Amino acid sequence: MELQALISNIKSEDIVEILGIKDVNVTGITSDSRKVTTGYAFIALKGVQVDGHDFIAKAIELGAKVIIHDEDTDTSNSSVTYIKVKDAADAIGKIASAWYGNPSQKLNLVGVTGTNGKTTTATLLYNVFRKLGYGAGLLSTVCNYVNDDQFPATHTTPDPISLNEFLAKMVEAGCEYAFMEVSSHAIHQKRISGLEFKGGIFSNLTQDHLDYHGTMQDYLKAKKAFFDNLPATAFTLTNVDDKNGLVMLQNTKAKKYTYSLRTLADFKARVIEKHFDGTAIEINGRELEVQFVGVFNVYNLLAVYGASVLLGEDLEKILIVLSTLKSVAGRFETIRSKDGFTAIVDYAHTPDALVNVLGAIHDVLEGGGRVITVVGCGGNRDKTKRPIMAREAVTLSDQVILTSDNPRFEEPQSIVDDMVAGLDPVQMKKALCIVDREQAIKTACTFAKPGDVILIAGKGHEDYQDVKGVKHHFDDKEIVKNILGL
Ligand SMILES: CC(=O)N[C@H]1[C@@H](OP(=O)(O)OP(=O)(O)OC[C@H]2O[C@@H](n3ccc(=O)[nH]c3=O)[C@H](O)[C@@H]2O)O[C@H](CO)[C@@H](O)[C@@H]1O[C@H](C)C(=O)N[C@@H](C)C(=O)N[C@H](CCC(=O)O)C(=O)O
Ligand SMILES: Nc1ncnc2c1ncn2[C@@H]1O[C@H](COP(=O)(O)OP(=O)(O)OP(=O)(O)O)[C@@H](O)[C@H]1O
Ligand SMILES: N[C@H](CCC[C@H](N)C(=O)O)C(=O)O
Ligand SMILES: [Mg+2]
């Protein structure tokens, strides 16, 4: 691609200086010097661990002909074109978009952001539009889809080059819709720069990722930036039952819509009856039965309904499809044992998610049995949530087993110790510590009596346990089924 075309999405005021020949044909783009081959454009990004600018010389050695950078660097190589921009992270998204033919401009792209509910809401929207007969794509924590073709997900929101590559695949496959999760890391790192959204949905903001954002204020600011940058042609749909629901839309140019279970809103739902394998609800005056448990899932379904209406779909058709939807992998997946207790595998790995999923279990259990919770916390993630997770689990369970999740590069025992620090002596009586997650699940199954519920929280769909950067096969559902002889 001609260099001029490659940088055509970058505003001239965002380009500081161009040195060297301008009419260059670029053969590829990357922000990783290790992927450079002859004729490539290399975008130097200052990352969390290292600075891409330190690899410019290496990139040129490997044949890079264009260097895009935002920090001063040696520009003495006359066979190389140097483009200094104000912000390389903002530039790479626009370059990736141009490289792949601006795919987001050829799709109805809807982004979902918030602490919890992104995967559920984005996946259900994808399911709805596939069931309505459209070509649709999905970028999510669990899996990426181009129509029915599956691609493994390394991130909740991929890097800008991978992201635009997926969107281009969707355009090629005839997709009209694309649904994606927009993580706070992605917004902060500008992975979504250059994307044209048709709509943005906000689920909720509660504690998570404070290891990365530092404070809730900065976490909020990161999420809000997504809505601030949506164009006037887009719609926004926010949960006004969340105290930051309206804050998110304060400075957006996009059209504003709201959803709620409690107050006046464009899209309103009410819970009529809760039972173990579903919930009877009413949405904008129409009653339907959904195969989801938990008031939090009613919020997700209401967001799916609202977005579908805003995308122009027929109300009746949407409600019919909603009642056929099934739970997303690793979210509230129930396994019934032969001797009458139930295990639930769920992805809850934040205090709010734990409270919501345990609340949902109590709602349907109605005191008919005990709740035994197996939970751990990820290593190299927000440490401050650990004691809170333990406290919430103990408060809302009859018995808790604190264990490992993905220890990553931390000592498993020290993570459990951080969790225990949240418990007073009385609460400690209800908590056991078993660092080996399989042992913890086994112990919970031996404790359980007919009518009890075991919640196995935090890993959900994950089929690995990340220990010191090695992903060992580990699947909560598989382990429970083996223990229960199913
Ligand atoms: C903390 C974080 O988000 N890091 C992301 C970031 O990497 P980084 O900033 O650490 O990059 P770096 O290693 O410092 O390298 C900086 C630059 O130098 C370049 N480089 C590096 C080495 C080299 O030899 N040559 C070279 O050019 C790199 O390509 C990079 O462009 O940019 C990378 C490329 O986009 C991401 O893969 C990486 O995700 C890491 C692996 C990660 O674990 N991210 C998680 C925390 C994450 O993003 N999670 C969110 C939310 C999860 C959720 O709540 O669901 C997600 O969206 O998945
Ligand atoms: N709307 C919601 N409000 C609160 N908790 C929720 C909501 N939806 C789901 N949860 C809980 O949070 C867990 C994660 O849900 P989901 O995977 O949809 O969220 P996510 O935002 O994609 O999470 P992540 O940021 O880790 O990818 C679920 O397993 C459930 O326990
Ligand atoms: N079981 C995982 C869930 C979090 C994964 C994702 N939200 C992230 O932060 O990378 C953990 O706690 O390690
Ligand atoms: Mg997710």
From TrEMBL:
GO biological process: cell division; cell wall organization; peptidoglycan biosynthetic process; regulation of cell shape
Modification comment: Carboxylation is probably crucial for Mg(2+) binding and, consequently, for the gamma-phosphate positioning of ATP.
InterPro entries on file: Mur-like_cat_sf, Mur_ligase_C, Mur_ligase_C_dom_sf, Mur_ligase_cen, Mur_ligase_N, MurE/MurF_N, UDP-N-AcMur-Glu-dNH2Pim_ligase
Cofactor: Mg(2+)
Signal peptide: none
Compartments reported by the entry: Cytoplasm
Binding residues annotated for ATP, in chain numbering: 114-120
Recorded GO MF terms: ATP binding; magnesium ion binding; UDP-N-acetylmuramoylalanyl-D-glutamate-2,6-diaminopimelate ligase activity
Binding residues for UDP-N-acetyl-alpha-D-muramoyl-L-alanyl-D-glutamate: 33, 156-157, 183, 189, 191
Domain Mur ligase N-terminal catalytic positions: 26-100
Superkingdom, natural source: Bacteria
EC nos: 6.3.2.13
Annotated ranges, domain Mur ligase central: 112-307
One Pfam family cited in the UniProt record for this chain: Mur_ligase_M
UniProt KW keywords: ATP-binding, Cell cycle, Cell division, Cell shape, Cell wall biogenesis/degradation, Cytoplasm, Ligase, Magnesium, Nucleotide-binding, Peptidoglycan synthesis
Binding annotation for meso-2,6-diaminopimelate: 381, 405-408, 458, 462
Modification N6-carboxylysine occurs at: 223
Major location (coarse): cytoplasm
Family: Belongs to the MurCDEF family. MurE subfamily.
Functional description taken from the UniProt entry: Catalyzes the addition of meso-diaminopimelic acid to the nucleotide precursor UDP-N-acetylmuramoyl-L-alanyl-D-glutamate (UMAG) in the biosynthesis of bacterial cell-wall peptidoglycan.
Protein name: UDP-N-acetylmuramoyl-L-alanyl-D-glutamate--2,6-diaminopimelate ligase
Source species of the chain: Dysgonomonas alginatilytica
Lineage: Bacteria, Pseudomonadati, Bacteroidota, Bacteroidia, Bacteroidales
